[in-house]
Amino acid sequence: MIFKGVCTALITPFKQDKSIDYVALERLINNQIEARVSAILILGTTGESATVDYYERDEIIRFARRLIKKPIKLIVGTGSNNTSSAVKNTIQAKRLGADAVLCVTPYYNKTTQNGIIEYYKNIDSINIPFFVYNVPSRTGVNILPNTYTKLCNLKSIAGIKEANGNIEHILEVFEKVDNQKIYCGNDNLSFIFHSLGANGIISVTSNAFPKDVVYAWKSLVEHKKYSKKFYSINKDLFIEPNPIPVKYVLAKLKLIKNELREPLIKLQENHKKVLDGDLKNI
């Protein structure tokens, strides 16, 4: 088991010139450490990995590794729609001291279930713990529960980040997969996953409210209180493509500059009002 509880899918902060803002990145990482999250994921979808090049990845991983010490685990997003790129990214993460990697399913290519299995076999061969990441709303392909049973036989698999919001699919995954391998990938469904026995969450909300998310995962009683209080913002943080809304919130909290790399652009004005209302309510 790499971690239990809360892993924050950390954003990548940028300066106005779109270069990496390492001062803000250190501030964000220290906030997570202070909140006692169990793990920090860098360079995932929330970290705008699609617009971060290989050399920037090298710098970011080295920087994060210097700051993140045991028992907190460093996880690096390495997935790609090109298997050779995913392998290259995974080898890089292993070389730079990552505790594990998270690999999203190949997107856009829309491979078959057997193709998904072969993709993860390539990652498995690198001998670093890895998380499978299923997010069909962004990739265009869904991992079927029966495919998970085959993936769970791979020697280096550490867990599954399940971000398919279909409840029937989720229930079938829990039926077929060991609960200790399942992690919630949607903040708005965290209480459901916790109730079903999931091992934890890889969270976007915890970028801004890490202590609250950590506290929620201590017990179902506390999680129910959290879910009621954070219901609206957990939903509205995806009112536009992630990480556009969470970067707006973090900028409102004066933790980062609200800068993204195109093709992502800043939050629409009408959506700012929605999130402002959520923050006021919290």
Can you describe what's shown?
With 282 residues, the protein is of the alpha/beta class. It has a single domain (5-218), classed as TIM Barrel, CATH 3.20.20.70. The chain is built from twelve helices and eight strands. The chain is globular. The two termini are 33 Å apart.
**Low-confidence runs:** none
Strand and helix order:
EHEHEHEHEHHEHEHEHHHH
Domain unit count: 1
* Separate helix tally: 12
- Identify the CATH homologous superfamily: Aldolase class I
Find the structural class using helix and strand composition.
alpha/beta
For the record, give the distance between the C-alpha atoms at the N and C termini, rounded to a whole number.
Answer: 33 Å
Kindly report the CATH topology: TIM Barrel
Helix content: 40-55%
Mean pLDDT: 97
Compute the CA-based radius of gyration: 17 Å
Order of strands across the widest beta sheet? 1-2-3-4-5-6-7-8
